[in-house]
Specification:
The structure holds two protein chains of two kinds. Chain A is mainly α. Chain A is built from eleven helices and no strands. Chain B folds into two domains: 187 residues, Periplasmic binding protein-like II (D-Maltodextrin-Binding Protein, domain 2, 3-Layer(aba) Sandwich), CATH 3.40.190.10; 98 residues, Periplasmic binding protein-like II (D-Maltodextrin-Binding Protein, domain 2, 3-Layer(aba) Sandwich). Classes of the chains: A mainly alpha, B alpha/beta.
């Protein structure tokens, strides 16, 4: 990311905050109460010093990461399998296409009923939501492998396993990584939603529920801001990893340095 | 929540080992017999982050649970009705519930037992409020208007309906709309509704920040001293853990007695487990914290519910309470 680009991004954020501040302070009626960005930012600055909030972030991030790892562990092998065996893929496809559009948040009440261990329930819904982007991307990645490269290897007498490990997997890896990055965002949404709907001992969502019952909209918004920051950080981390690991892919496909 | 001793590993690079502990955390350790012959010594207790369950935190800080050999792990729930599946499947041992939700659930066949009383209405704890310049001057003026309640077909709507009856109206004369308490003030001011049924700390907040005025105290007449909330368990849990249950009842009873005799105890606790700040805690109107679980008092709730069609059949409250051991 160039410096000019970073500067423009910062300007955009600052402009948005200032506009929000002005609208809330002067634009909307005095009869409506909503904390201004400055009030929310003020609370957000002190939140990391609050042990309740920190414990909540710890719980949410733990569930989030465990869920994402488990989802990756399930979706990648499954995606490779489906990608490598087109007949199987054609059989499973309709089921996947049916399950995929179900809003993951809608399965939370069901999960609360069925799964009695709180962490397990939360991680399960995160896994459910995070599996789809990784699975679909892996399947596409496998289907996108250059047939010429596969054929060349075969004609040199390499077996199917060698073709898989030497051509298909490396070629699909950038797609898998993109799937994981998309899934990370979805997983965070589910991690917080599950806490909002089910409660729990702690978590960012639980913290928001507590703030709401105490009429502290400023704290609710500040905690939400932190959830957004966490999502942004993990996305940046994964994006950087993607660029470092798969520089060759960007060169090959001509993907822009966005 | 500050006393919550569950310290968690804050680790971004979570290892597979952590994945295993995170997923496999069951409560086998908590079921080993305690010093007092308790069937279970570590219990998860679900509650809302509001003033009602303050007894739980008083008992926790004063060591009343510890004296009984109990370790209580408080958890935040999202509502009494929402907590029923959680006590049924064992993710919570005990949870708070409001009595109206409880009796509706019992009529639907849920196997629940009430084990301790928690909170009872006092004057000005649940009011109908309107903006200061609202043309609505009396409850009768609500005819044809929209009233916000936190849950439809629950205590709020019931309480407002009893007031409507006094004013010669019925529930059909107003439109009830569901809205969370924190959003009610803005919703009324932006024209989405004309009045709201609201409790603390929102009564104080709407009064001081938005200049709302009280139209009626709903906890009067039929609803005077109305029991609001209590502690519940599943039938199965009650049958399996009679000693743990009795230990919890003794500890809570002591805490309730403290809460009702000394408001300072409540004010100290509120900022620790709710988002209510100390200065707000000292000015909000609080209800009553009964020490005894009385079938007679609770029967009133079931009877009023029956009268207004919230229940189809009469419920004998004696059949769903587990009375605390006599001291």
């Amino acid at each position: 990311m160039s410096k000019a680009r970073l500067l423009r991004g910062a300007l955009g954020v600052a402009g948005f905050l200032i506009l929000g501040e002005l609208v809330i302070r002067f634009g909307i009626s005095e009869d409506l109460l909503f904390p201004a960005p400055s009030a929310i930012l003020y609370e957000a600055v002190f939140q990391p010093a609050d042990p309740d909030f920190l414990a909540g972030v710890g719980t949410t991030v733990t569930n989030w990461m465990v869920g994402l790892l488990v989802a990756t562990a399930i979706a990648v092998p499954l995606g490779v399998l489906l990608g490598a065996l087109p007949p199987v893929e054609r059989v499973v496809r309709p089921l996947l296409e049916f399950l995929r559009p179900i809003p993951s948040v809608a399965i939370i009440p069901l999960a609360i009923l069925l799964i009695s261990v709180d962490e397990m329930m939360k991680i399960s819904v995160i896994v459910y939501a995070a599996v789809w982007p990784i699975l679909i991307n892996t399947v596409y990645g496998m289907q996108d492998v250059d047939p010429l490269a596969k054929e060349s290897l075969r004609s040199f007498g390499f077996g199917p396993l060698a073709v898989l490990t030497r051509v298909s997997l490396p070629s699909a890896a950038p797609f898998v990584m993109t799937g994981v990055r998309i899934a990370a965002g979805t997983a965070l949404v589910l991690a917080v939603s599950a806490e909002l709907m089910a409660g729990g001992a702690d978590g960012i969502g639980v913290y928001v529920n507590v703030a709401s019952s105490g009429n502290r909209v400023d704290l609710m918004m500040a905690a939400t801001l932190w959830a957004g920051v966490l999502g942004l950080l993990v996305n940046m981390l994964l994006l950087t990893g993607e660029r470092r690991l798969f520089r060759w892919h960007q060169v090959r496909t001509g993907a822009s340095e966005s | 929540m500050t006393r919550k001793l569950r310290c968690r590993a804050i680790a971004i690079g979570v290892t597979v080992a952590l994945a295993l502990t995170g997923c496999g955390a069951s409560d086998d350790t908590a079921t080993s017999a305690g010093a007092n012959g308790l069937e279970k010594t570590t219990i998860k207790v679900g509650h809302l982050p509001i003033p009602d369950p303050v007894g739980l935190y008083i008992a926790q800080t004063k060591g009343f649970f510890k004296e009984e050999g109990l370790t209580v792990e408080p958890e935040i729930i999202t509502g009494g009705a929402a907590a029923i599946p959680q006590i049924e499947n064992g993710s919570l041992d005990i949870a708070m519930t409001n009595y109206v939700s409880t009796f509706v659930a019992v009529e639907q066949g849920k196997k629940i037992k009430l084990i301790a009383d928690m909170y009872q209405a006092a004057p000005n704890t649940f009011n109908i409020m309107v903006p200061k310049d609202s043309p609505i001057k009396t409850v009768a003026d609500l005819k044809g208007k929209t009233v916000l309640v936190n849950n439809l077909n629950n205590i709020g709507q019931l309480a407002v309906t009893t007031q409507l009856k006094v004013a010669g109206l019925t529930a059909e004369d107003v439109k009830f709309v569901e809205k969370p308490f924190p959003d009610m003030g803005n919703a009324v001011n932006s024209g989405q509704a004309d009045a709201c049924w609201i409790t603390e700390p929102f009564i104080t907040a709407n009064q001081s920040q938005l200049g709302f005025r009280k139209l009626a105290d709903t906890m009067t007449g039929q609803m005077a001293d109305f029991p609001i909330a209590g502690w519940m368990v599943s039938d199965e849990w009650a049958a399996k853990h009679p000693k743990t249950l009795a230990a919890f009842q003794r500890a809570i009873q002591k805490a309730q007695a403290l809460a009702s005799s000394d408001r300072k105890e409540i004010e100290t606790q509120l900022p620790t487990y709710t988002a209510i700040k100390a200065d707000v805690a000292s000015v909000i109107t609080l209800g009553v914290y009964p020490s005894e679980l009385s079938a007679n008092r609770l029967q009133k709730v079931a009877d009023v519910m029956l009268e207004y069609g919230y229940l189809k059949n009469a419920i004998d409250v004696n059949s769903i309470i587990v009375t605390p051991p006599s001291q």
